[in-house]
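Example 3.2
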Amino acid sequence: MIKGIKVMLIPNNKQRSNLFQCAGVSRFAYNWTLEKQKYNYKNGGKFIKDKNLRKEFTQLKKIEEFKWLNQYSNNITKQAIKDACDAYNKFFKGYSQFPRFKSRKKSSPKFYQDTDKIQFTDTHVKLEKLTVSRKKNRQKFNWIRLAEHIRIPYGEDIKYVNPRISFDGVNWWISVGVECSENDEFPSNEGIGVDLGVKDLAICSDIDKPYKNINKNKKVKKIKKRLCRLQRRISKKYEMNREGSSYKKSCNMKKLENKLRKINLRLNGIRHNYLHQTTSEIVNRKPMFIVLENLNVKGMIKNKHLAKSIQEQSFYEFYRQIEYKCLWNNIKFIIADRFYPSSKTCSRCSAIKKDLKLSDRTYICPECGLVIDRDKNASINLMKYGQLAINQ
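Structure, written as tokens:
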């Protein structure tokens, strides 16, 4: 089993400059490959394999104009060429759109590291050829500090898969796959039905207390208020610096945009952290199965009154985390049919209340008289759906 781990890097100023340079080398190799493929196709040529392009790129480094490429790891350019060929090939197979050239301003800086050359310790990671000097004091630039200690396992027996370094606009990150032994334990506890909503994030069938909506927290509301003020401030700056149909961006505007980027990242970090805490808590109860309903999020967003609240809940991210955490723990992950009436069905007598409205937060059964919270009723029905799915 391969587990993906992503950790923030804390580079110094020199390392930060070198990381941007490595990302620029990767972008150059990607664009060079794409240009070669396009030119070859226009002249009636066939698809050029990446191994042939890598050989040609090696010869390119010998030219005086491109000798600067020798200062950086050749694994960065090799993988960039391979990525460009894969993207180009996928377009002709109908899997994706035609690959675009990477822009220095718009594309996110990222590059690849070789699995054999990368090294980890408790606190640092060693990247290949950040500096070409062999002096000990200069070699220290190759070791970059990790924000989280002892997060990534290391040793002779550890195998790493596809290490990538990326920049999100504020911080540098390293993501790497680590081969781990599979879990042999199969949980036998009662299954859990999970009903997702806007009022509360998740309501589970096995506990009475719901997982609250983090966006209603005072801390998040305060950050969102600050975000709105900063957006209005930037918008006014743009209108002031308008020159016809274009805008003149000043240094102060760039500073404000950087602040805006930091606040957005902080807000997303709080939401994703809460989702991880919630999903881990559900999975750690070791149920036999977990059932989620297949929500029509695209249709729900069309409601202008609820669109923003639904987007902030990040339902897709919740599904994704539950799915891979179930896979790690040998828990069966079941998605209920979209048209299964989990909210309208009575969890005691299975009668269906067809006139149930979205504003009705309490479910009152017309047949047996059951009075229960609407979302709790839906979660119990989802749990029963999972039991039927396993028994079939």
